[in-house]
Recover the amino acids of this structure.
C-alpha cells in the first residue's frame, strides 16, 4: 500500500469514525475491559507489582498532605513550578491507585484537586515569568509545561471519571478543561499549529482531552490542525518531524521528549478510533521512532548527547517506558525489548505494562539487539544522518557514532562530522552536551546558559575539524539549516565496519570528508578505531581537530611543553575563548601518540599527517564568569597552515589496571610505524604494524563495491 | 591476664613448642586434615565454588602458557616485574588447584617453575633497578617484592610438597629457598630487623618458609629478630607497629598492606605452634587490626585515603579477604563480617574460606556494623588518633573523619586535624591521597611522583588550616614525628556526635583546636555537619582553610569574582604553587554560603567568623610539567591577618535532582542566620535557624560532662 493511499484512507476514517468514540472510562493507557487483568497482574508479575506499589506509595504520600494549588509565580525549578508538576503526577498516580485498589479516597483527592484548579484557573493571567518570543502558559512559565500538565491530568481524570458526580465533572470540565482547550487552541494558536515538539505536546493535550470529554471538534483540530486541512496537527507532525527511519531532527535528547505525546496520543487514537490504524501510519513510523530512540543509546543507557542534551539522561526516562510498553504490547512483541524494560525497572501500570511484565515473568526476555546502522535524517531521508557502528557484546561494547545529520533547528550544534567513541560502558571521546543546569533555579532559572551558545554549540567543543578558529557556518543557524552532510558510504567489509560522510558547506571553499571505522584484527581482543579526516580546500587555512577525552594522560611520544606558571585562553571567539591552553608542542616527527588511562583501561591514539603537527593539550574553563562550565580535557591535533590536509588517527584500547589487586597489563600499545601513504580526492592509504605484523588500510571513495580494503601485508 | 604475664608465656612456648612442628603438608591456609571438607565445599557453597573456579581458571590459563622465568630487569610495572608477580600467583593458584582437583599437572607446573627459578636464582645479582637507600631485591627492584614473592610461593610449595619427588624438593630447597632465606636474613639484615611493614613481609617470608622447610632457626629469628632477643622480629612488630586499638601508624592504605603478612604468618604459627596462642597475643591485637581495617572504610568499600594512599583501594583487596576469612574462622565468627565477605565476592580457598562460604550459604550474614569510634594511635594509644562519626544506614550513611593521628613516618601527610566528609556513598569533602600512578611505568616507573612531596603531602592539599601559606612543621618529617595532636573529646550527646582535638606544635606559637559534629535536627532527614576551627596565637598570621569538594558549584551568597582571562598559581611553595586561583572575593558580610551539586544532591556550606572572610575558588594543576596532577576543586576560607580566629561552617545536605525524570527538590538550604556568638580558649557558642526555628550550639572545652550542648531556642 503506498503512502498516498494510506493518507487517503486515514482521512476517510477521520470522518466516518467520529461518531463511534468509545465512551467508556478509562480508555487510554488503562482500559475498562482490562482493569481486572491488570489488577490481578499487580499481584502476579514482579515488575508490574513493583511499579504499582511505587505509584501507590506516591499517591499515599500525596494523600497525607493537604492539597496545594498555588497561584503560579515561579520559573522552572521554583516552588510553584515544582508544586504544579507534582500535582499532575499526583492526579495520574491517584487515578491509577483508584482503578487498581477501588478505594474512593484516591478518586476524591483527584476530584478535590481538580475542583481547586477549576475554582482558580480562569482567574490566572498569563504566567508572570513568561518570556518574550516564547509562548507563556498560565500554570507554568511556558505553555509547553501547561500541555504536559494537561496530558497527565486528563489521564487521571479519565480514571476517576466514573467515581465522581456528574455535577463535579461539569464544574471541572466547564471551568478547567474547556478553558484550557480554549487557551491551548486559541491563545496558543501558533504553537498549536507548529511542526515542532511544543506543537506535539499541544495537540496531544487537546486531542486526548477531546476524546475524554467527547469533543470531536478538538480531536479533529488536534489531528489535522486548526483549519482541519492537514497542513498542521498531529499527522502532519508525524510526516514532517521524523525521518523515514524514525529519527527526530533535533537529536536523541529531544526525540525521547517529543516521543511521549506522540505515543500517548497514538494510544488514545487507537483506542477511540481503531479504524485509523494509527500505529500503521507512514509505514509504522511510530514504532520506528521508538526503536531508533533505543538504538540512539549506548549500553550504559545514556542517549548519544549530540545537540542540546542533558547528559545523564538514559532510556530509563518515563517517555521510553511508555514507548517501550506500547511498542511491545500494541505493535510488535519483540523479546529484546524486555531487556530494556528490565533495566527501566518499571512498567506503566496499564494494559501495555501488564503485557510487558507478564512476558518478563515468563522468561521471554532476550538481550537488546544493538545494531550497527545508518539512521537517515530528513523528512524524505535524504538529509544526511547518523552512522552508528558497534562491536562486541552488550556487556563490553565498542561504539562509534558519526554525526552527519542536518542542523536540527535551534537546538542543533555546529558539529558536522563530529565523532563520538565509547567503550567499556563509558565515554572515550565525548560530546559536552548542553550547557544547562536543568531545573536549578540558581543557575539562570534552570534555562540554557549563555555558555550553551558561546561554548556548547560551537564546533571546537566537538571532535571535528575547525577551520581558522571559526565554527561551521560561523555558528549561524539560518545558514546551517540550508545544508546537510552527505553519506559517502556505510557498510561492513569482512571485519571492518566503516562510515564515511562529507560536508562541503560548513566553510566556503573547503570540502571535508571523514571516514571512521572499527576494525577487528585477528591478534586483538578489541577492535581498533581508524579515523581519517581529509580536507580539500581552494586555499590555505588553519585546521584544528580536537579529541575531547575522558581519563588521564599517562603517556605520549613527546614531552608536552606545559604552561606551568600561567594559563591563557586558546582564542577569543567561537568557543576558543572558553579553553585554557595547558600545553603546546610543535612536533618534529610526522607520527606520534598519546596514551590515556580511562576507567582502568588504556587508550592510545596514534596520529599522523602529511607533515608534522602541533599538539595542544586543552582544558575547559576560561571566560566563565559564573563558573558554569563543566571540567573537560582534550588533545588537539593542529596544522597552522595547509591547503589540503589529512588527519589520520588509530585509537587502540589495550590492557588494564586493577587498583584493588594493584596489577597492570599491557600498558603499552602494540601499534607502531603508522604511515600515511596516499590521500587525495579519490581515496587514501595508510599502513601500520600491530605486534610487528604489517597492515594496510585503503579507502576508495567512489568505489562502493570495494570502498574499504584492509589487508595484512608482508 | 596482664600483658607482661602473657609475654612471658609466649616466650616460654617459643622454646618448649619448637620440636613439635606439625610436619604435614599442606599446613597453612589449607591443612591436610581439612582438604576433603574444602573440596566438598567447593561444590556446595556458591562463594567457595566461585572462588575456586576463579583460582582454577587462572591456574589453567597459566598451564596453557610456557613457563617464563626471565632474568630480572624491569622496575615496577615493567615486563619482568609483572612476569615474576604473575609467577607467584600462578604457583599459589596451581597449588590450590592441585589440592582440590588432585590433578598432578598442576603440581608438575609448580615443580617445573620452581626448578627453573632454582637453576637461575643464585646467578642473579642485586636487581639492576635497585635504588639507593632502598633495599634492592634479586627478583624485583626492591626486596619487599621478593618477600611477597616468597610468602606466596612457599604456600604453593607447601601444597605440592607431597606430589613432587624428594630429589626435586632437595634441588628447590637447596638452590632456591635456602639462598632466599640467606638473602632475606643476611643481605637484608637491616630490613629484617626493622619495625616497619617491609620488615613484616620479610619476617613472614622467612618464618613461613622456616616452618614449611622445618628450619626452627629461621622461625625463631622471624619471631624474635636476628639476635633472637625479641627486640625485633614479628612479636616486636605486633607490639610496636599497632596501637592498642589495632591502628597502624602509616594509615589505612598501608595498614591493609601490612596486614597480609601479619595474618598469614599468624595462621602458620597457629597451625605449627598452637600453644603460642598467637591470635590471643597482646589482647587479641591481630583481630583488632583486622576489624579496624574494615572500620577505616566508607560504605562504598574505599579506605579513608589519609596519608599516602591509592584512592580506588577497597576492602575487596586480597589482604582483607585473608584477614576477614581468618578473623571469622579462627578468631570470632561475627555474622556482620559475612556482609563484607559477600561484597568481596570471594573467599580464600582454604579452611577459613570454607567456614565463611558455608555461613553465608546458611544465611547467617548481617549488615556490617559500622560504628562511630575514636581509634587511638601510638604503641600505648596515647598519640592522638582518628575520630570517626557515622550516621544513617549502610545504604545512605553520613560519615565524618577527623585525622588527629601521629605523623605516620615517611608516608605521612602534613594534615593535622584534617577533616573528611562522606555522604550518599561518595566523597563530599575529600583527601587527594597520594600522587602516584601505581605500576604505570610511563609515570616515573609507577613510583611516587615528585608531586607527592610537592603537593599531596602538603597541608593545603587537605581540609585543614594553613598558617602563613606554610605547611605544618614546614613539611619536615623529623619535626612532625616528634609531636602528635591530642584528643579533647569524643562522644555522643543526645542526637549530637562530636569529635574535638587540638594540635599545638604544627606552627610555633599557634594553638589549633577543631571540633566537628554530626547533629540530628528533629525537622531534618539527614544530619547537619557543624565544624568549628579555633586558632589561638601569640601573634598575627594569615589563616587559610580549604574545603576540597566533589561536585559542581551551583550557588553562593556572593557573586564570585572570577579570573576569566588568565590563571595564576596561588603561591610559590608548600603546594600553593600547584593551585590555580580561579576566583577571589573579599566579602563584606560575616556570613555566607556556597552550594555544590554533588552526585545529584545539594550540599550547602554556610560559614561565619569573627570578621568577614575572603573566599577563594581553587583548582589543582599549576606547575605540573608532566601533567600528573588529578583534577580537583576547593573553596578556601581565608583570613589575611588575624591573631585569634574561628572558622565556623555548617554543611547541610538537602534535596536532590533526578536527571532521568527531570525533577528537582529542595534546591535551597533551610539554614539561615548563622552567627558566631562567642569563641575563646574555654569554648564557643553559635546560633542559627533551620526553617525559621532557632538553635544554639555550645562547646565547653574543659567540661567533659557537658562538652557540647545543642538546644532549640525561642
Amino acid at each position: 500500500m503506498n503512502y498516498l493511499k494510506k493518507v487517503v484512507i486515514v482521512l476517510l476514517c477521520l470522518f466516518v469514525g467520529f461518531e463511534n468514540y468509545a465512551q467508556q472510562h478509562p480508555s487510554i493507557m488503562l482500559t475498562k475491559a482490562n482493569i481486572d487483568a491488570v489488577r490481578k497482574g499487580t499481584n502476579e508479575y514482579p515488575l508490574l507489582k513493583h511499579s504499582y506499589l511505587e505509584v501507590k506509595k506516591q499517591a499515599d504520600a500525596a494523600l497525607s498532605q493537604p492539597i496545594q494549588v498555588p497561584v503560579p509565580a515561579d520559573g522552572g525549578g521554583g516552588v510553584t513550578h515544582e508544586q504544579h508538576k507534582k500535582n499532575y503526577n499526583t492526579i495520574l498516580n491517584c487515578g491509577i491507585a483508584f482503578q487498581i485498589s477501588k478505594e474512593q479516597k484516591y478518586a476524591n483527592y483527584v476530584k478535590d484537586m481538580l475542583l481547586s484548579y477549576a475554582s482558580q484557573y480562569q482567574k490566572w493571567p498569563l504566567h508572570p515569568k513568561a518570556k518574550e518570543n516564547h509562548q507563556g502558559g498560565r500554570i507554568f512559565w511556558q505553555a509547553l509545561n501547561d500541555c504536559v500538565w494537561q496530558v497527565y491530568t486528563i489521564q487521571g481524570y479519565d480514571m476517576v471519571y466514573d467515581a465522581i458526580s456528574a455535577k463535579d465533572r461539569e464544574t471541572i470540565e466547564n471551568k478547567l478543561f474547556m478553558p484550557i482547550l480554549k487557551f491551548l487552541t486559541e491563545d496558543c494558536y501558533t504553537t498549536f499549529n507548529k511542526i515542532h515538539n511544543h506543537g506535539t505536546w499541544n495537540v496531544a493535550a487537546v486531542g486526548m482531552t477531546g476524546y475524554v470529554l467527547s469533543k470531536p471538534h478538538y480531536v479533529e483540530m488536534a489531528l489535522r490542525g486548526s483549519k482541519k486541512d492537514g497542513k498542521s496537527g498531529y499527522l502532519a507532525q508525524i510526516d514532517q518531524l521524523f525521518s523515514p527511519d524514525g529519527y527526530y531532527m533535533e537529536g536523541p535528547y529531544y526525540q525521547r521528549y517529543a516521543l511521549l505525546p506522540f505515543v500517548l496520543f497514538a494510544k488514545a487514537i487507537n483506542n477511540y478510533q481503531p479504524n485509523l490504524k494509527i500505529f500503521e501510519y507512514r509505514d509504522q513510523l511510530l514504532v520506528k521512532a521508538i526503536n531508533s530512540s533505543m538504538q540512539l543509546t549506548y549500553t550504559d543507557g545514556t542517549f548519544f548527547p549530540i545537540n542540546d542534551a542533558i547528559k545523564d539522561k538514559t532510556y530509563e526516562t518515563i517517555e521510553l517506558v511508555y514507548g517501550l510498553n506500547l511498542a511491545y504490547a500494541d505493535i510488535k512483541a519483540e523479546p529484546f525489548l524486555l531487556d530494556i524494560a528490565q533495566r527501566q525497572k518499571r512498567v506503566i501500570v496499564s494494559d501495555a505494562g501488564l503485557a510487558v511484565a507478564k512476558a518478563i515473568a515468563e522468561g521471554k526476555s532476550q538481550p537488546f539487539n544493538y545494531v550497527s546502522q545508518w539512521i537517515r535524517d530528513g523528512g524524505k531521508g535524504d538529509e544526511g544522518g547518523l552512522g552508528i557502528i558497534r562491536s562486541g557484546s552488550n556487556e563490553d561494547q565498542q561504539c562509534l557514532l558519526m554525526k552527519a545529520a542536518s542542523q536540527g533547528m535551534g537546538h542543533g550544534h555546529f558539529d558536522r562530522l563530529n565523532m563520538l567513541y565509547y567503550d567499556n560502558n563509558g565515554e572515550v571521546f565525548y560530546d559536552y552536551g548542553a550547557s544547562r543546569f536543568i531545573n536549578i533555579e540558581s543557575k539562570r532559572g534552570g534555562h540554557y546558559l549563555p555558555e550553551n551558545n558561546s561554548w556548547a554549540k560551537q564546533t571546537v567543543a566537538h571532535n571535528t575539524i575547525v577551520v581558522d578558529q571559526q565554527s561551521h557556518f560561523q555558528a549561524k543557524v539560518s545558514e546551517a539549516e540550508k545544508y546537510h552532510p552527505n553519506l559517502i558510504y556505510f557498510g561492513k567489509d569482512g571485519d571492518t565496519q566503516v562510515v564515511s560522510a562529507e560536508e562541503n558547506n560548513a566553510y566556503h571553499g573547503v570540502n571535508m570528508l571523514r571516514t571512521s571505522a572499527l576494525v577487528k584484527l585477528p591478534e586483538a581482543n578489541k577492535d581498533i578505531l581508524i579515523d581519517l579526516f581529509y580536507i580539500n580546500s581552494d586555499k590555505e587555512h588553519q585546521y584544528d581537530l580536537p579529541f575531547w577525552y575522558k581519563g588521564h594522560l599517562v603517556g605520549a611520544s613527546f614531552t608536552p611543553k606545559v604552561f606551568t606558571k600561567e594559563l591563557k585562553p586558546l582564542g577569543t571567539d567561537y568557543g576558543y575563548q572558553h579553553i585554557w591552553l595547558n600545553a603546546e608542542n610543535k612536533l618534529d616527527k610526522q607520527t606520534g601518540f598519546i596514551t590515556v588511562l580511562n576507567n582502568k583501561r588504556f587508550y592510545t591514539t596514534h596520529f599522523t599527517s602529511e607533515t608534522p603537527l602541533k599538539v595542544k593539550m586543552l582544558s575547559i574553563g576560561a571566560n566563565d564568569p559564573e563558573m558554569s562550565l563543566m571540567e573537560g580535557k582534550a588533545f588537539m591535533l593542529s596544522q597552522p597552515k595547509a591547503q589540503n590536509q589529512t588527519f589520520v588517527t588509530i585509537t587502540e584500547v589495550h590492557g588494564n589496571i586493577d587498583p584493588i589487586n594493584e596489577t597492570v597489563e599491557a600498558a603499552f600499545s602494540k601499534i607502531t610505524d603508522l604511515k600515511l601513504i596516499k590521500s587525495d580526492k579519490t581515496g587514501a592509504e595508510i599502513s601500520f604494524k600491530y605486534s610487528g605484523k604489517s597492515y594496510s588500510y585503503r579507502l576508495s571513495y567512489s568505489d562502493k563495491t570495494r570502498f574499504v580494503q584492509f589487508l595484512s601485508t608482508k
The longest strand of chain B covers residues 496-507.
